[in-house]
Structure formats: C-alpha cells, structure tokens
Amino acid sequence: MNIRIYYEDTDCGGVVYYANYLKYFERARTHYLEERGCSVAELIEQGTQFRVTHAELTYRSAAIYGDDLHITTTLSANRRISLTFSHQIQESKTHRLVVEGTATLVAVNSQGRAKRLSPDMLKDLGLEGKMSRQE
Question: How many structural domains does the chain have?
Fold first, then answer.
C-alpha cells in the first residue's frame, strides 16, 4: 500500500508526526484484510470487531512532507482469538527504511468479549490449520 505525505501529516519541522505511523499501520491492515476478502465493515455487521492490544514501532529514519511511502504488511502470527501484523514503511524511490513495527489485534464480539476467529476468515487469510503454538 502506498501513502503520500501531506503537510497535515507533519509536525512544525516538516517531519511526519510520530503517531501518524499508527494510522498508516491501521490503513495497511484494513487494506491487507480487504484484499483477502475480509471486509472490515462486513465483519462488524456479523459481530466481529478487532481491538489493538499491543503496538510497537521502531523509527529508523524520518519521512518528510512530499515523500511517497510504501507499506508492506504481513501476518506474522495468529492465535485462536488474535492476529499479529508486521509492518515496514519504506520511502518508495530509495527504499530507505522509515519505520517498522507490529500490532496485535484481538477479535471481540459486539459486547467487547474475546471470541475465536471464524474458520472462514482463517481460510480467507490463508491460515486454515496454521495456528501459532504460542496461545
């Protein structure tokens, strides 16, 4: 997924405001899921939501106003009720690493209680029968 850095994304020094990377990660996760047939809107309608329980970022270099960034997202771990996504953000032209990190999301029902991921969703994500041993 690609992101263009606009003035609104930056701090007074023209550098991307650090918390915006979490927004970019969120967009990339939504894109990742929807590319695999898991519409976030449909999941919500069916009673499944995701809550971030852990996020970790390592800043490698600054992105600035006007940069074009590329976000690579992979599913790095899954458990019965959670998914962990890994993200890498690079400047598109030079491939300079800007930020890398992970986010763990727990599936919850409409009352906010943890729930198992459906077999259909695991199949759509290519995870059928590939449960992580760390549960």
Answer: 1
Q: Is the pLDDT of residue 90 over 70?
A: yes
The label of the residue with tokens 């996504």 reads 85
Q: What is the number of alpha carbons within 13 Å of residue 76 lying toward its C-beta?
A: 14
**pLDDT higher than threshold 80 for residue 118:** yes
Question: With the CA atoms of 46, 54, 84 and 124 taken in that order, what torsion angle do they form, in degrees rounded to the nearest 10?
Answer: 10
Q: Which residue reads 């690079």 in tokens?
A: 90
* Residues spanned by the domain of 46: 2-124
**Which are the catalytic amino acids?**
11
Please indicate, yes or no, if residue 84 is contained in any of the structural domains.
yes
Q: What is the CATH number of the domain that holds 45?
A: 3.10.129.10
Where b means 16+ CB within 10 Å and e means fewer, 88-106 reads: bbbbeeeeeebbbbbbbbb
**pTM (2 decimals)?**
0.89
In a domain, 114, yes or no: yes
